[in-house]
Amino acid sequence: MKEKLEALKAEALEKLQAVTDPQMLNELRVKYLGKKGELTEVLRGMGGLSAEERPVIGQVANLVRSAIEEVIGTKQELFQQQETQNRLNAEKVDVTLQGRGLPQGGIHPLSRVIQEIEDIFIGMGYQVAEGPEVETDYYNFEALNLPKNHPARDMQDSFYITEDILMRTQTSPVQIRTMQAMNGETPVKVICPGKVFRRDDDDATHSFQFHQIEGLVIGRNIRMSDLKGTLQQFMKEMFGPSAGIRLRPSFFPFTEPSVEVDVSCFKCGGEGCRLCKQSGWLEILGAGMVHPNVLRMGGYDPEIYSGFAFGMGAERIAMLKYGIDDIRYFYTNDMGFVKQFKGI
Ligand code: PHE
Which of 48, 179, 199, 215 has the smallest C-beta neighbourhood within 10 Å, fewest atoms? Predict the structure, then answer.
């Protein structure tokens, strides 16, 4: 029996040496070590051996088994390495290949204008403040000197959510929120950009949703001349050094006196053209000295403190600046429109 086992081992090892692929290897494994394999077959005959012979043969059989297993293991590892190598060869990456270009993006003209305005005012020492788009009637109207049933509420048709909550119609509520947050400290110097909502029918110059940028300054001895100088400086930085401004009397419930501010037409320099409708001036913003009631509601004594505020529409400025003739272009995500602003 011992000879049989040795012969089996010799035969198996020889055949295994010649194996060239994993499938053949598996077949030989089954042939020799499988349940119905040849080694198992030989071991079955052990029942007929004497008690002395059995452990001796058993030991030989184990040695044969482990010798065969070892060769199979080595071969298996070799095949695995070969396979990995083949896969690596096949998947070679050509690092010199030209990459796929990413399309160049651009900043939306509205965001660009808002950023530009923010930058100008930050340069003058202002901070940027934001507030909620869903507001209470108190912040949007009442604290801005617009009590319930005040006729001036009609100037801004509103989307009400409940009787007391609405989509803000202006960024002016941020004035009150900022004043309250400042707790009576001065100077207050903020600009507040943001979305506002009004019940307007959309057309080329109206949208139910647009953007305002509000400015507020409060301190001691803040005068109308400070407002004028600030706006003059802003317009020069925004529209060029030759930009001039003019103030026209106007009305806002939260400022007194109130003005409408025009900038000299940057296209014709004031001569009169299609953009300025031959007037030489472009209407840009509303402004005024903060009303004493508003100061009081924000926690500032109007006997000691004064301030100015102004508000402008981002869409209008972007339309003038880039010659856009329909406000709806800003919101429709027409790629043809948006792409014109890439890289500027
Ligand atoms: N909130 C005003 C509007 O929407 C604009 C404005 C702001 C006017 C601040 C004066 C001062 O019409």
Answer: 48
Count CA atoms closer than 13 A to 204's CA, side-chain side. 5
Which of 144, 158, 170 most suits a substitution to test ligand 1, by most atoms within 8 Å of the C-beta?
170
Residue 130 forms beta bridges with which residues? none
Tokens linked to 59: 């030991």
Q: What are phi and psi of 72, to 5 degrees?
A: -60, -45
User: What is the C-alpha separation between 189 and 124, in angstroms, rounded?
Assistant: 9
Q: How far is CA 276 from CA 146, 238, 241, 264, 271, in A?
A: 33, 17, 18, 9, 9
Residue 113 · residue 317 · CB < 8 Å: yes
pTM: 0.71
For ligand 1, is residue 286 a contact (CB within 6 Å)?
A: yes
Backbone phi, then psi, for 245, in 5-degree steps? -125, 160
pLDDT tens track for 152-168: 777 678 899 998 999 99
Q: How many Å apart are CA 307 and CA 289, to the nearest integer?
A: 6
pLDDT over threshold 70, residue 40: yes
Tracing tokens 């003005």 back to the chain, one arrives at 259
**Residues 254, 290: contact at Cβ < 8 Å?**
yes
- At the topology level, CATH places domain 109-339 in BirA Bifunctional Protein; domain 2 (3.30.930)
Q: What percent of the chain has pLDDT over 90?
A: 55
Query: Which long-range contacts (C-beta less than 8 Å, at least 24 apart) are formed by 326-335?
Result: 326/204, 327/202, 327/204, 327/205, 327/206, 327/207, 327/210, 328/202, 328/204, 328/207, 330/108, 330/109, 330/110, 330/207, 331/207, 331/209
Both tokens of residue 186? 């001065």
Sequence spans of domains, the chain: 2-89, 109-339
